[in-house]
Amino acid sequence: MQDQTDAAGEAAPRPTVTFRELGLPEPLLRAVADLGFERCTPIQQEVLPYTLLGHDCIGKAQTGTGKTAAFLLTIMADLLRNPPDEPRYIGEPRALVIAPTRELVLQIGKDAEELAAHAGLHIVTLIGGVDYDRQRQQLERKLVDILVATPGRLMDFHSQRQIHLDRIEILVIDEADRMLDMGFIPQVRRIVRQTPPKSHRQTMFFSATFTEEVVRLSAEWTHNPVRVEIDAQSVASKDIDQIVYLVEADRKLDLLLNLLKQPEAASVMIFANRRDQVRRLHERLERAGISCGILSGEVPQHKRVKTLEAFREGNYRVLVATDVAGRGIHVEGVTHVVNFTLPEDPDDYVHRIGRTGRAGASGTSISFACEDDAFLLPEIEKLLGQKLPCVHPEPGMLVAPKRRV
Questions:
Q1: What is the dihedral of CA 23, 26, 29, 34, to 10 degrees?
Q2: Which pLDDT score, from 0 to 100, does residue 98 have?
Q3: What are the beta bridge partners of residue 242?
Q4: CA dihedral sign of residues 69, 72, 78, 81
């Protein structure tokens, strides 16, 4: 693997460039302007000058850095500048994005639709838990430019000969570390083998962490890549106020209810580690008179989509979730993230708090640390490169609020 650049070096940071300076096609510049963006994020500034020229890329970056727009703009610019010179057929996408979770695929698809608003590109998402025939009809309606899919559902369509990957020009593998954790790498290998050789396609490979296995996979699937690393300190936005409350486990609910009474807690995402914890917390909040949604792996996909949309639209002020919602979910205006239980993986902490403080807005991250999980704090602080303020809540914050009759 040959590194052509390394954003993790000690060089002084350059002033951020504008999207117009990158020479993007006019339809993309119009869409970026519509979305209110003018200047690149650090990873976009490091990646785009190379990927827009066709270079492969390996990016170490968490959700919230702007990596999705980086690879989508690369794909769309290439497709617009290089129209196919041979006949195309149904079920033959030009670009493929593989992501580990249904929620992330849907979010990437939504971002792609927004960026392609003036480009006339057809985007299709394929995920499990959604009607197969309806997705097949999407594929058959018109030629597919960009396909975004989870590995399992993509393999289903490929085995049924509904999808053909031998004409892929650009391949994106997103959140490779999570793919590895979820056991998807064998499926991804089979998918990659169906695409043209790495010397005949452009590949962009992203991961929040660079373990030995992730580095090996990146070398296997990319060709002379640019390497960019955006560290966790950059992701833990300066616009996010972080605080840790030291609280006994049996007082967490009272503290949470009092926090939710504060008028500034207008849109709140609450994370717990396990499905049963999320389910129990959701039930207790509803009994306390708080209307809230729930996202976890045991909730059917169609309900998860509806719940997330209701939260986006403000029909729910509170959303309780496992880390299935921690990566790739972009909801504007989230004011608070609450870690009801501290995550066992420090990277998940960064992903969770990245749901707030987005696009220049301020946000608050509140974590509860009790006797069961306070030992997880040092590793989180090590990843962040900073100490987190740990305080005991004011006595009044632990008083059980009156329950609704």
A1: 170
A2: 98
A3: 365
A4: negative
